[in-house]
């Protein structure tokens, strides 16, 4: 969908869960827009802030010293009202009131659904994928995943140290909502003995119990289970496993630490390019698009097409994860 006139003012907002690297995307969008002679505005607290007219002018100085910071300098909030036609109209009216004729929305699928509605109401919008969950189907990369998975990996290494000292079984729950990408990557990176993914888990706990007992017989001193947030119930699972095996079992839920921290180089660079690319699309007269990374290139898709895509867990990665977790008799 093309815009009808030249974009003069672009707003930037972050919506939904925060992700490390969002500040890099904000910074790049602001500076790219200013470089192209466009006025840039920051919308605080996502769609909620758009409804409440929490809008500020953004200069190059405003985004200085932000690329290394986690979280989002524009803040974020979830906004139920944006799911209603009344809320969508109010958001579009606020854009018009402040002269915002282009909007960069950094967030996940829910945020893109809001952008889609605004585009239908005549507000030129481009979505940028920002979520630690890596669950947006149109892109192989989402802002924040790389940092989150590294944060989780380092934490799991530390839990393994103490788990080994006490000869324990440890269940470590990682985030990811209903997607198992963080759990899969950590399962491979941390050498976990069991990886429980929403896409693959059959809820046969006895298999896990048998695996723990067999490994202990082979002389293995600890057992690491990576459990995805979409399965959850790690604490009660730990109690059941300890009762069944007689082996001390502890649950560690990593939680929101995975959302924070200074972004990795990859998250800073990819987010910067995506933020700038979103502004370039708006200036080129494009709307109703989602920026994506596919086959080594930065590309864009129609929002309707992007939201209709389905993402599946890579089967070969899952096969390798299972193969590497098996403790062979030497």
Description:
The chain is of the alpha/beta class and 330 residues long. The protein is 41% helix and 18% strand. The chain has helices spanning 22-35, 46-51, 85-97, 109-120, 145-165, 181-189, 205-217, 234-245, 265-283, 303-308, 315-325; strands at 9-14, 39-43, 55-57, 102-107, 124-129, 169-174, 194-196, 223-228, 249-253, 289-294, 297-302. The strands form 2 sheets. Strands 3-2-1-4-5-10-11 form a 7-stranded mixed beta sheet, with helices on both faces. The chain has a 4-stranded parallel beta sheet with strand order 7-8-6-9, sandwiched between helices. α1 packs parallel to α9 (265-283) and α7 packs across α8. The longest helix has 21 residues, at 145-165.
Low-confidence stretches: none
Largest sheet: 7 strands, mixed
The percent range for strand residues is 15-25%
User: How would you sum up the global shape?
Assistant: elongated
The helix count comes to 11
Widest β-sheet, arrangement of strands: 3-2-1-4-5-10-11
Q: Residue-averaged pLDDT, rounded?
A: 95
Ends distance: 61 Å
Overall SS class? alpha/beta
Work out the helicity level: 40-55%
Element pattern in H and E: EHEHEHEHEHEHEHEHEHEEHH
Radius of gyration using CA atoms only: 22 Å
In brief:
The protein has helices at residues 22-35, 46-51, 85-97, 109-120, 145-165, 181-189, 205-217, 234-245, 265-283, 303-308, 315-325, and strands at residues 9-14, 39-43, 55-57, 102-107, 124-129, 169-174, 194-196, 223-228, 249-253, 289-294, 297-302. It is an alpha/beta fold.
